[in-house]
Automatic annotation (TrEMBL), chain A:
It comes from the Bacteria. Residues 193-352 form the Peptidase M16 C-terminal domain. The lineage of its organism: Bacteria, Candidatus Kaiseribacteriota. This is Insulinase family protein. One of its GO terms (molecular function) is metal ion binding. Residues 60-132 form the Peptidase M16 N-terminal domain. Gene3D superfamilies: Metalloenzyme, LuxS/M16 peptidase-like.
From TrEMBL, chain B:
This is Insulinase family protein. One of its GO terms (biological process) is proteolysis. Residues 194-369 form the Peptidase M16 C-terminal domain. It comes from Candidatus Kaiserbacteria bacterium CG10_big_fil_rev_8_21_14_0_10_56_12. PANTHER family: METALLOPROTEASE, MITOCHONDRIAL-PROCESSING PEPTIDASE SUBUNIT ALPHA. GO terms for molecular function: metal ion binding; metalloendopeptidase activity.
Length: 422, 437
């Protein structure tokens, strides 16, 4: 570990769990980021909403306390606690004052272990989920994201996303029994937890060990992920939504690799070079030179929990200049892949990535998220300090090998907005 | 691990020590009146630099609404010594080395900032000093950047909450420039002449109308010397700062606005007039906003979200320089009527006025604020950003004194401000009505 991260400690927890503790300069602030195994990837396709509904209900009453008792108790101590679910995992995030960490950990475990899922609360959670989906129907970005995932992946892949009506149907079909059934699979298995901020490692280790001992060590198997079976093809889909002043555009392709691939970090560098910030190729051309967009960014996504992910370029365009903007976006992406992988661009991007990585870890929250991610990705703790060297080690040859993994002549494009007027 | 040092007076000729409060030190550059705030944290490998200008959409008028924001964009197009031609623009020099470089505009202020490895602090200060008075502001840049800003406006228009919020402020304010949003009206974005922007820049972007704040890892003496060298190159213009003398006439009755658009979203908002940030009632109003809608244990969450009428509810107590708004926004669940939610909101407001606040609610709100105070010092950006909002009110010491004022607020005082300000005649009600797509 470099000296910047020398204070970060890792502890092994029973059942294969991992605890990361990082004291920082923060005063009076502790942030907890954690997760256990159990998420939408691990339930049948038609029931993928169950983990999200369960997560929304974990603090809505337990066998020993009502929803209001739990929420009032947390609020009285200035504690915040949220549950969520994605990929293979059910996640929990909390903030508290240092003296309240044992209390926060105990409530997390109480909710994970003893949630009672009252029928009235199930009804409310379903109504809220349907409300969020209704808002998505006319949200250009959300619509584009769903359609993009469906274009890239076959329906059995973990990155595939159903349409809003399909998901609404799943929400309506979710019963208390099914939600409880899913929640009963949650235990200590796969526990990853990062505790960061105004803390001392040894007492945190003791508190986490004690609190999470309450959780059963259930065996929840993770079946091997199926790689995407859908062939890449150049395709374009427009989603027409009325009364929209802006068009959201996504362009990209599924990639036949996971984070364990030898060129994964080279792919990250490629994405950064293409659209990682203001100095990247797309912002310098489409925004700075042509004034066509407020924002255009490229990212890798969908690689969580061992999935084969994708390259995604997002851009925002005015409907009045939609056709021209999309044509130029495609042209600049092509130009980048054919002529943009220069030594100078590589060195500049490496410097930016390394510098921004260190800057980003200057907050308690981002360090907690980074540590949890290390656990989720089954990496060694040393990855935290090794990351800059890994990025610096990427060569131009690596970039070309990485680009060879991208079907650059078969990129899919989705646009959502009031496109017809253009 | 805490590495913040007690504030102390550091002597640099030409820079006057003003005061120290908590761990914040204030200085003033004698030559031109530039205000300097330093918040050192010696162990941090990262630092942040922020220049806050006391100019925002509050200082704009019809024809050049959005000027502050448009200038925010144009000031990244280069200045005399830092520009693309000489390879020294903000992004090439700083973002390429990992810095977070950006700017934000709001009603009373605009800020330009960099969060970066500590070794780059002198570069950031030099760049900010140069663009304070030497930004290019060319017509060619306005022409190329205008569609970018217009697209930012368009992104905002796609958001139902933002669209309703703009209408709410536009109706609540008829004379005062809080009437228009910081991004401005679309036609002004498209057509404001470069000469108007240049005059606006010359009028307001000057050392005696700005505060430079540096937070995180840096050496105080070195930074003061650097600020003196870079910002000391400017003289304060002799012309007085343009004064905003327009005040909002008293509102005489509830105002209502409806926004109809093709959408599946439905929203209700109610905004009440409240005083400016320096008023003595503001601490109690902030606690009132937390009691109303901060978290799942709040009154409005229970009344609206727990009953499936809404997916979300927020209440914001805007702390601005001039009289402002306490604004509540509710996102409705499908099938829930706007009138029903409006009635629920008004019933909850009335309940506070008639029944008051329980002591435990005040205690919860205070704990929430304690958590916020801890979070706002987590890293240079969080600190700069929250300190910046206090600078914008005209009194940065609120960063330290406001929490103390909050601690003294009683349940009776919260009830009193609810009675005083949650008044129908001083409210503006907005409905966003989604029609069929």
């Amino acid at each position: 570990m470099s000296k910047d991260f020398a204070a970060v400690r890792e502890f092994a927890l029973s059942g294969g769990g991992r605890l990361f503790v990082a004291p920082t300069n923060a005063r009076d602030l502790v942030i907890v980021e954690g997760s256990v195994r159990g998420g939408p990837n691990l339930v049948p396709r038609s029931e993928r909403v169950l983990p999200a509904l369960a997560a929304a209900l974990l603090d809505a009453g337990t066998t020993s306390r009502s929803k209001n008792e739990i929420r009032d108790g947390l609020a009285a101590r200035g504690i915040s606690l949220e549950f969520g679910s994605s990929g293979d995992r059910t996640r929990f995030s909390g903030r508290c004052f240092p003296e309240d960490l044992p209390r926060l950990l105990n409530v997390m475990c109480e909710c994970l272990n003893e949630a009672s899922f009252p029928e009235t609360e199930v009804k409310t959670a379903k109504a809220l989920a349907l409300g969020a989906l209704a808002d998505e129907r006319s949200d250009t970005r959300a619509q584009a994201e769903r359609a993009f995932a469906a274009l890239l992946y076959d329906a059995s892949h973990v990155n595939y996303r159903p349409s809003v009506p399909e998901e609404e149907h799943e929400v309506r079909a979710a019963s208390r029994g099914k939600i409880r059934g899913f929640a009963s699979t949650l235990g200590r298995t796969g526990l990853m937890i990062a505790v960061v901020g105004d803390v001392v490692a040894a007492p945190v280790h003791a508190a986490v060990t004690k609190a999470f001992a309450r959780l059963d060590n259930r065996i929840l198997a993770v079946p091997p992920k199926k790689m995407n079976r859908k062939q890449a093809q150049q395709q374009e889909r427009h989603i027409e939504l009325n009364d929209k002043a802006n068009v959201d555009v996504l362009l990209g392709a599924a990639l036949p690799v996971t984070i364990t691939h030898v060129q994964y970090h080279a792919l990250r560098v490629v994405a950064e070079m293409l659209g990682g910030g203001f100095t990247a190729h797309l912002m310098q051309t489409l925004r700075q030179r042509d004034g066509l967009t407020y924002g255009v960014y490229a990212r890798l996504a969908g690689f969580d929990d061992g999935a084969d992910g994708y390259l995604k370029v997002w851009a925002s365009f005015s409907p009045a200049r939609f056709a021209e903007s999309v044509a130029l976006l495609r042209k600049e992406v092509d130009l980048f892949f054919s002529k943009g992988l220069t030594e100078l661009a590589l060195v500049q991007t490496q410097e930016r990535l390394v510098g921004s990585y260190l800057v980003s870890l200057s907050t308690t929250e981002s360090l907690a998220l980074a540590l949890h991610c290390i656990g989720q990705q089954a990496r060694e703790l040393s990855y935290l300090s090794d990351f800059p060297d890994i990025i610096r080690a990427v060569t131009r040859a690596d970039l070309h090998a990485a680009v060879a993994l991208i079907p650059i002549d078969k990129l899919a494009l989705v646009a959502a907005g009031t496109i017809g007027k253009s | 691990m805490a590495s913040r040092t007690e504030p102390k007076r550091t002597n640099v000729p030409g820079i006057s020590f003003v005061r120290a409060l908590d761990w914040i030190e204030e200085y003033r550059l004698d030559k031109n009146g530039l205000q300097i705030l330093l918040v050192p944290d010696s162990a941090s490998p990262v630092a942040g630099v922020m220049v806050t200008y006391h100019v925002g959409s509050r200082n704009e008028a019809i024809g050049y609404t959005g000027a502050t924001h448009l200038l925010e964009h144009l000031m990244f197009k280069g200045s005399k010594h830092f520009n693309k031609k000489n390879g020294g623009d903000a992004f090439a020099l700083l973002e390429r080395k990992g810095a977070r470089v950006n700017a934000t505009t709001w009603n009373d202020r605009t800020n330009y900032y960099e969060v970066l490895p500590r070794a780059l602090v002198p570069t950031a200060l030099a760049l900010e000093a140069d663009r304070m008075r030497n930004a290019y502001l060319r017509e060619t840049d306005r022409v190329s950047e205008m569609p970018v800003v217009r697209n930012e406006f368009e992104i905002g228009e796609n958001n139902p909450a933002e669209a309703l919020d703009k209408q709410l402020w536009a109706l609540a304010y008829q004379a005062h420039p809080y009437h228009h949003s910081t991004i401005g009206w679309k036609s002004d974005i498209e057509r404001v002449p470069i000469e108007r922007l240049q005059k606006f820049y010359a009028d307001f972007y000057r050392p005696d109308n700005a505060t430079v704040t540096v937070a995180g890892g840096f050496d105080v003496k070195e930074v003061l010397a650097c600020i003196k060298k870079e910002f000391g190159a400017h003289i304060a213009p002799s012309a007085p700062l343009p004064e905003l003398y327009t005040t909002e006439p008293r509102q005489e009755g509830e105002r209502r606005v409806m926004v109809r658009r093709a959408s599946d979203s439905n929203l209700v908002a109610i905004a009440h007039k409240i005083p400016g940030a320096s008023h003595g009632d503001v601490p109690a109003l902030l606690l009132l906003s937390l009691i109303l809608a901060d978290g799942k244990a709040s009154r409005l969450y229970r009344a609206l979200v727990d009953t499936s009428q809404a997916t979300d509810v927020t209440t914001i107590c805007y702390q601005l320089r001039d009289p402002s708004l306490l604004s509540t926004l509710v996102t409705l669940t499908p099938g829930t009527g706007h009138d029903r939610v409006e009635q629920t909101l008004k019933a909850e407001f009335a309940r506070i006025c008639t029944e008051g606040i329980a002591a435990k609610e005040i205690a919860k709100a205070r704990q929430s604020l304690r958590a916020y105070i801890a979070s706002r010092s987590d890293g240079p950006y969080a600190l700069l950003s929250s300190l910046n909002e206090e600078i914008a009110t005209g009194d940065w010491t609120r960063f330290v004194t406001f929490p103390e004022a909050l601690a003294r607020v009683t349940a009776r005082e919260v009830q009193a401000v609810a009675k005083k300000y949650l008044v129908d005649d001083q409210s503006t009600v907005g409905h966003f009505v989604g029609t069929r797509l």
